[in-house]
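Complex record, two chains
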Amino acid sequence: DIQMTQSPASLSASLGETVTIECRASEDIYSNLAWYQQKPGNSPQLLIYDANSLADGVPSRFSGSGSGTQYSLKINSLQSEDVASYFCQQYNNYPFTFGSGTKLEIK
Amino acid sequence: QVQMKETGPGLVQTTQTLSVTCTVSGFSLTSYGVHWVRQAPGKGLEWMGIIWGDGSTNYNSALKSRLSISRDTSKSQVFLTMNSLQTDDTAVYYCAEGAYGSAHYWGQGVMVTVSS
C-alpha cells in the first residue's frame, strides 16, 4: 500500500496569513492526489483533485501543487471559516489511501 | 444536484454483520463510481472500497475478507456489507461519488456503534 505522510499534524495561524500543508507519498503517484476539508461535525468536502484542479465552488485562495511524491495545499489569506481538518488522498494505486490529517486553528 | 444519503442500523453487536445503504440522486450509478470511507471517533479517514460505473469493485486489502460492495441501479442504491464486526469497526460510514479516484460529493454519514 502507498503510505501518505502528511505534515504538520496541527497548525495555528493568524487571519490573513498564508499556510501550507504537505503530503509525501511513499512512491510516485503521478498527480493522482486530492485534498479534502472537514469542518468539525461535518462530512469531508473536496477542495482539490488531480493535484492542482480546484473543485466546484471552492474559493480561489485554495491551491494545490506538486508532482511525483511531494504535494502541497496552500491557503492564502486565511479566513475564520477555514478552521478545519485537511486530508490528502492518493488514488493512483489500490487501496486508495489518506494522509493522517492536519488540524488548522486560528491564533 | 448530486445528493448522497447513508442509512444504517446505528448499533450492531460484535461478530454480527453490518449493512449500510447509500441512496444517490443527481447522477447515474452506471456512469460514476461510489466510494465507501469510514472515520472512527476522533480519527482520520479510512478508504474502504469502491464500486465503479461498470459494476466492478476494489477493496481495501485490510478489509477485503469481510467487505462486500454491491448496487441496485434501478433504485439508485449502493450497499456496503461487512461481517464479523468488532468494536474497532465503530465509526461514521460515508459514501461519496467519485468520477475517477477522488470523492467529489459526500453524504452526511451514518454513525455505527459496535457493542458487545
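Note: The CA atoms of residues 12 and 105 of chain B lie 27 Å apart.
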